Amino acid sequence: MQFPVVNYHSPTAAQDFCKSLHETGFGVLANHPLDQHLVDGIYAEWLAFFGSEAKHKYAQDPVKFDGYFSPAVSETAKGNDKRDLKEFYHIYPWGRYPAEVSDAAQRYYKEGSALAAELLKWVEDNSPPEVRARYSEPLPKMIEGCDQTLLRVLHYPPLRGNEEPGSVRAAAHGDINLLTILPAATEPGLQVLGKDQQWYDVPCDFGLLIVNIGDMLEEASGHYYPSTTHRVLNPTGEGRFKSRVSLPLFLHPRRDVVLSERYTVKSYFDERMQELRGKK
Ligand SMILES: O=C(O)CCC(=O)C(=O)O
Ligand SMILES: [Fe+2]
């Protein structure tokens, strides 16, 4: 499977990017407006935060879903029975934000959300008429006034060798939301499952932005835009001793949006959360 790198400034960027999203569920953008130096600064200061005891002051809120999720409460992917080898912090505009870090991640939240909204407009504009006819309202409208978009700062600790057999950094999963944007992480490891059932490495060169379709957009588009299964592999060799930090931003629609004849956003989300919680 090929992931064409689309130049954000190319005259055919929107078409090329959406073709890739349609064919693979993933799109890769270069020369986009998000500053990878800002992202690298966030990686560095949050790595220090995850290395400190301060993180425990912000233990996750099981209802609101903001704050710090330790490896002991990290996610178990649908269809998997082991917890992922990761800890993370959920940032919402209304949620708790650690006093120990700068406002860089909050700035990134705003810039990332604005770019994700623009890319959603690209998706709308490049949906064939029969697909567009399925949307209960234009895609950009689905996110208007929504405060559920989530920035997750993710830390995959170095491997210690005592991990439970079969547990991985991030087990194979699809994202629940509309669209996810993910700047190049500090280390490789992200893979996508191709239609041929083979795993493919996603490019992770400095400054690239990886974008993928989530389950809600797959549902709303009648599967025209597929939510492709992806995972984060455990590192081997020297990489075992290194942390990996990544920064997915999950663009979410309003809870009352009708996704399809079967689901509203709320019913879809509740069903998925039920599946996740059922395993804890
Ligand atoms: O860390 C990564 O590169 C991907 C993370 C991811 O897929 C997720 O958190 O949903
Ligand atoms: Fe994901």
Explained architecture:
The chain is an alpha+beta fold and 280 residues long. It has helices at residues 13-24, 36-50, 104-125, 129-132, 139-142, 215-220, 265-277, and strands at residues 5-7, 26-30, 67-69, 87-91, 150-156, 170-173, 179-183, 190-193, 199-201, 209-213, 230-232, 244-246, 249-251. Strands 1, 2, 3, 4, 5, 7, 10, 12 and 13 form a 9-stranded mixed β-sheet that branches. The protein has a 4-stranded antiparallel β-sheet with strand order 6-11-8-9, with no helix packed on it. Helix 1 (13-24) crosses helix 3 (104-125). The mean pLDDT is 94. Residues 152, 154, 170, 175, 182, 185, 190, 230, 232, 246, 248 line the site of 2-oxoglutaric acid. Keywords: Ethylene biosynthesis, Iron, Metal-binding, Oxidoreductase.
Features:
binds fe (ii) ion, Jelly Rolls, globular, 9-stranded mixed beta sheet, 280 residues, binds 2-oxoglutaric acid, alpha+beta, 19% strand
